[in-house]
Each structure stands twice: as structure tokens, then as C-alpha cells.
Amino acid sequence: MTAAISLSGVTKRFGKFTAVDRLDLEVPVGVTFGLLGPNGAGKTTTIRMTMNITKADEGTVRILGRTLDEEGQQRIGYLPEERGLYRKMTVLDQLLFFAAIKGVERKTALERLERWIDVMDLRPWLKKKTEELSKGMQQKVQFLGTIVHDPEVLILDEPFSGLDPINVVLLKDFLLDFKRHGKTIVFSTHVMEQAEKLCDRIALIYRGNKLLDGTVKEVKAAYRDRVPLPPPVEPEPELEKIFIKAVEESGLAAPTQEELR
Question: Does any domain span residue 2?
């Protein structure tokens, strides 16, 4: 079966700085995939290369078996780390605009949005301008704009950033529902606990290098005898402990406090 996303030898340099170094990744269709690593690890650069926003200096990127073109864009939902909403536009107009640029007719868009609007508790805000909404509410609007065209692949860059605990749970429920419908979900995060609970597969990137990847079960099994744990409280190593061990074994410098925030 064709992979949902395939990266081979992908490299990106900014001057003398290598942000991503010969990265190989394969995301199977229908899985939830976590791209993990501290701040500055290269996660956003990797996602931007996947979306063809930033050109890779080396390597190849394929989504659903092909290089990304206009038709392929319609099969992807992309939520960037830096949200992009029109502050003077009302919530409903904004959602319909996002649908239109993805080729979704107004009637179809309204039908799809009907249930989601209530789930996201956005109905009282539909006629409000975006600038009147809290940051958390704006993020929910952006997320609905990302999925209104019913994409096959959902790529989310730090989707939980800035959300309160209630909305974090709400977004997790949304992602689980998408997975049940056979969608492929890729999201980046520096919070290992989120990935541990949501992901089928993960890849750990650190300073532009991939340190490990595989299913969560495989990764934990590989590190079970290499990460000291006080039994029986923690029968399996947590991903955060695995990350620390993987960095130690890589020979790369330890992360700074800024990277870990």
C-alpha cells in the first residue's frame, strides 16, 4: 500500500545551519503519527517541506504516492503552528471562505459544519469577528477550517499549543474520530505525554536528526532494558525518559532549557 507520507533523505539548510539532516520518514495510511522533539528540533521545518512551503535542499517528499501538486493539496488538511485568520471577518464567513478555497460548495460546507459548530461550542460566535474571540476559540475556528474539505491526510503543527485543558480533550476526541474514519493524522509536539496517548507511530527528531522511529510499543520495547525504572510502578519506560536516553546515545549535545520549554 502507498504510504500517506514518505520522506527520503530530506535535508534543509539555512546558511551554515542544518535544520533537518537527511531525514527518512514513512507514515502509513490510516495511522496517527507523532513527530516529536523539543523546540528547535526541526519539526516545523519538516512539516513545511512536506507541504512544499519550504523547498528541501536535498531528498524527495511524496504524499499519497506523488509529489505535492494543486490536486494533492485538496486531499490534505494543514494546520500551521502560526495561525492565520482574518481578524475582521466573521467566524461563519471565515469558515465558508476556507471551504471555498478548497473547492467545497457553500451548501456542502454548511452541512459539514453544522455538527462541528455545536461540538466546538462556536454557534454563539458565528456572527462575531475573529478579533473578538479568545485565542482558544480562534484555534477552534482554524481547526474547523482545516478539516471542512474532508481531507484524507491531516497535518497539524503543535495543534495543542495554547489550548486550555478542556479544549485539549475536545481536540483529542476530534482526532480519534478522524482516525476511526480511516484518516491519516500527523502532528508535531514537544509534549511526549500527548503522543504517548494518541499515536500509533512516532519519530523523535533532535537538532535536525532522527534518533528513532516506530510504533510506540516497538520504541518502548527497544528501550525497556536501557532506561532505569523503579518497578513495578512504571512497567514500561515513558517516552520522555526514552528521549533523554536517545539523546545521550546519539552523541549530540544535551537540550537546553529553552529547547525543552
Answer: yes
